[in-house]
Amino acid sequence: MTGKSAVGTMLSSLVPISQLNQGKAAKIIGSLGHDDIKIIVKNNEPMAAIIPISRFSELIEAEELLKEKNQ
Questions:
Q1: pLDDT tens digits, one per residue of 10-47
Q2: What span, in angstroms and rounded, lies between the C-alpha atoms of 25 and 71?
Q3: CATH code of domain 6-69
Q4: In the beta sheet, which residues pair with residue 50?
Q5: Nearest-CA neighbor of 29 among 55, 4, 2?
Q6: Which of 3, 22, 52, 58 has the smallest number of Cβ neighbours within 10 A?
Q7: Which residues are CB-neighbours of 60 under 8 A, at least 6 positions away?
Q8: Is 15 helix (H, G, I), strand (E, B) or coil?
């Protein structure tokens, strides 16, 4: 089997909020690839997501197209 398992991928995407508080935000953000997502966890609860701006733009465009289609 090649690559990460789904569980491994999910676990590697989790980032404790304490890492952001420790000044590691630039490193975390800088490591993102186009399809990467980092889930920020506070008190063992997912609180936010960090995604590359290119991916964010694609999601916004897709949302707009869906809204137009459903009008």
A1: 778 899 999 998 999 999 999 898 888 999 999 999 99
A2: 40
A3: 3.40.1620.10
A4: 38
A5: 55
A6: 3
A7: none
A8: strand
